[in-house]
Amino acid sequence: MQENSQCPEQQYRALQSDGRPVCRDCTPHCKRCLGPREDECLICAADYRLANGHCRQNCNTGQFHKDGVCMACHPSCGSCTGPSPYECTSCPDGLVHTVSGADKGECSVGCPQGTFRHGSQCRACHDTCQSCDGEGEERCLSCQSTFFLTGNQRCVPTCGDGTYQYRSDVGGGDEALSGMECRPCHSSCATCYGPLETECTACHNSMYRLEHTCVGHCGTGYWPGPQNVCQPCHFDCMSCWGNRQDQCISCASGKKLLAERCVDECPASHYLSLDFGAVCEPCHVRCKTCYDMGPFNCLSCKDGYELDNSVCYSRCDLGMYFINHTQECAPCDKACRECYGPTDKQCIACYSGKSLMKVDDKRFTCLVCCQQGQDPDRDNCCKCNKDQQCMPSQGNQGNSGADQPADRPGLNHGAIIFICLLILAVFGLFFGLLQARSRKKLCWRDNYETLPTFYNNSKGEEPKITLRQNALPSSDDEDFFDDTDEDL
């Protein structure tokens, strides 16, 4: 199914049993249709003409074709070359064809206006008819001044949907066929003010009105608004899902997409991605600037981290944060496993059993997931998704799991001692893997995306890589490697 529930040519939009939209094929020879029946065509394929919803190679008797559409002759004509009562080429029984040139002419009756010929007698037309070709309200050829002539030869006080009012003051004399008519709209229009496809005032349910034309989809620079009317996007947007500045899907030339807004330049801690248009993507949570997603593509680091070969390593141990002006490490709040400040709302990662919840644009806290019956506002918990990651709720502004750093396992000192004993033996292999990962050349990249390491250079020594517990990340070890984290 295409975006905005729009179907291509030769298909129409239908609903499945579960209420979801689906595109299904029109009948043969239909270029556009309302449904599966043969009488639901809107536009026909080449060499076919539209007649009452059907696509035919030739129009029916009493019709003429114009621009691929069969249109009714004037009711006074048996056949014709146009809609006027003076473009008849033959007449119905009981009317006389008066030729006015090029086989065109008028079909008229011999009886006075308001009567019709019946054998050798003239009988009165229906009260609503000005002229007629027989008895009854469905035999009118023209109407009294306050009525409109329909396609089925009835005179009605107002024109219905699918028709428009047309004044046909033509001819002269007492027997002129004149008055107001209800003419059919173009087949793509539900209501209209004229016969052309550019004169619609409303469209069928499967169509959208773009100015006064009904189209299958709104196109670039527009979005389908209320009542299936195409509304213009904000001038910054190339495509959009609403008319506001923060409802862009793609941007006009020279602009970059940032959280559904189009900006001139990407802000700090973002990089420009060209994979799907010009989009500002967030750097990894530890990068101050970067050139691509993930923890291995940093250009500079945030406070408390050191850059080494495009990776930002923590200056402090787990559970500590770096104080820039004193160049010292201080403990995080007990609620945080990792942090960037001393309070319980400056967390970067949480202990097992808790998830990271966004408080505002700069602050995060650690909460347990709410159990059934718990209220996030009252019970100090957060609503979680299936991966046990906090989601937005009434009481707070949360990020989804894809936008938050997740819990990580803590340092196990026994594991560190054991790893340090092996570090000399595996250093060469580890360093080679790290270099290959930083250049995105490992075929098993997803298994090694996370490197839970930190940088230790407090004594001015050569950089050393110290492994934390679990070199391979678990499902709870995503905060260091989740490149969609919010800027802190």
What percent of the residues sit in helical stretches (DSSP H or I)?
under 10%
Fraction of residues in β-strands = 25-35%
Got a strand count?
45
Quote the distance from N terminus to C terminus.
38 Å
Cα shape: elongated
Gyration radius, in Å: 38 Å
Count of alpha and pi helical runs: 3
pLDDT average, as an integer? 77
Low-confidence runs: 171-177, 394-417, 442-488
- Strand arrangement within the widest β-sheet reads 18-17-20-19
Largest sheet: 4 strands, mixed
The assigned structural class equals mainly beta
Pick out its properties.
single chain, 488 residues, four-stranded mixed sheet, 45 strands, 7% helix, 34% strand
Can you lay out the helices and strands and say which pair or pack?
Blueprint: E1 11-15, E2 21-25, E3 30-33, E4 41-44, E5 49-51, E6 54-56, E7 63-66, E8 69-72, E9 79-80, E10 88-90, E11 96-101, E12 104-108, E13 115-118, E14 121-124, E15 129-132, E16 140-143, E17 148-149, E18 155-156, E19 163-167, E20 180-184, E21 189-192, E22 200-203, E23 208-210, E24 213-215, E25 222-224, E26 230-232, E27 237-240, E28 248-251, E29 256-258, E30 261-263, E31 270-273, E32 279-282, E33 287-290, E34 298-301, E35 305-308, E36 311-314, E37 320-323, E38 328-331, E39 338-339, E40 347-349, E41 355-358, E42 364-369, H1 376-379, E43 381-382, H2 413-438, H3 445-448, E44 453-455, E45 465-467
Parallel strand pairs: 17-20, 42-43
Antiparallel strand pairs: 1-2, 3-4, 5-6, 7-8, 9-10, 11-12, 13-14, 15-16, 17-18, 19-20, 21-22, 23-24, 25-26, 27-28, 29-30, 31-32, 33-34, 35-36, 37-38, 39-40, 41-42, 44-45
